[in-house]
Amino acid sequence: MPEVLGADATALVISMVPAGGPPSRAEAFRFGSDLARLHLAGAESFGAPWPGYIASLPLDNTQGDSWPRWYAERRLLPFVDQADAPAVRAVIDRIEDLAGPAEPPARIHGDCWSGNVLWSGGRGWLIDPAAHGGHRETDLAMLALFGAPHLDAILAGYQDVAPLAPGWQLRIPLHQLHPLLVHARLFGASYQRAVTAAARALLH
């Protein structure tokens, strides 16, 4: 396990994680199980008592008790105008119906794409978090968005520890809307089509 070498209000310094090769299916399964245990640690609310960032963009972590409204107000609305996506506004209007069964706040990574998982020593290590209390399906949807290796094994390991609520596959586009909107803000119109497709998948 990486050793914490120093920490203050602005930085966390840990020992280097040696580079490893591509993960095996067993290592991916273990990572899924570890991720489930991280989520099960829970959080006091949705959001966090500190301001957040994803890449260079600020995240409003103002805390709340209802994930659908929190997600709509803190993750979708701040980015939707620049994306010019009427379908996203329709999703926001129906967020309560689309969000699935209520779940308690999970302790999530918040920017859990495959590039933020280092494979070393027989397991996956999470780096560069945008940590907050959120919905556990968010991290899994992010892994799916940019192609995590052996995603099916990761999901199997996760389900072995903390089974997901029925219909989780249909909610993947909902959890992918925020990172897609972030990419539309950072990289422009090339991501507009993906934003619209994710929103429409939820509405039909």
Question: Which tags fit this structure?
Answer:
two-stranded antiparallel ribbon, 8 strands, alpha+beta, Aminoglycoside 3'-phosphotransferase, Chain: A, domain 2, 8 helices
Task: Tell me what the structure shows.
The structure is a single chain. The chain is of the alpha+beta class and 204 residues long. The chain has one domain (18-203): Aminoglycoside phosphotransferase (APH), C-terminal lobe (Aminoglycoside 3'-phosphotransferase, Chain: A, domain 2), CATH 3.90.1200. Helix content is 46%, strand content 13%. A two-stranded antiparallel ribbon has the order 1-2. Strands 3-4 form a two-stranded antiparallel ribbon. A two-stranded antiparallel sheet has the order 5-8. Helix 2 packs parallel to helix 7 (172-187) and helix 5 packs across helix 7. The longest helix has 17 residues, at 67-83. The radius of gyration is 17 Å and the shape is globular.
Would you kindly provide a brief summary of this structure?
By secondary structure, the chain is α+β, with helices and mostly antiparallel strands. The chain has helices spanning 25-40, 67-83, 86-93, 95-98, 136-145, 151-161, 172-187, 192-203, and strands at 4-7, 12-14, 52-54, 57-59, 106-108, 117-120, 123-126, 132-134.
Distance between the termini: 45 Å
Strand content: 5-15%
CATH architectural group: Alpha-Beta Complex
Q: Structural class, judged by helices and strands? A: alpha+beta
Gyration radius (Cα, Å) is 17 Å
Percent helix range: 40-55%
Low-confidence stretches: none
CATH secondary-structure class: Alpha Beta
The strand order across the widest sheet is 1-2
Tally of structural domains: 1
Order of helices and strands: EEHEEHHHEEEEHHHH
Task: State the shape.
Answer: globular
Largest sheet: 2 strands, antiparallel
Summed up, the helix count is: 8
- CATH topology name: Aminoglycoside 3'-phosphotransferase, Chain: A, domain 2
CATH H-tier superfamily: Aminoglycoside phosphotransferase (APH), C-terminal lobe
Averaging pLDDT over every residue, what do you get?
93
Overall number of strands: 8
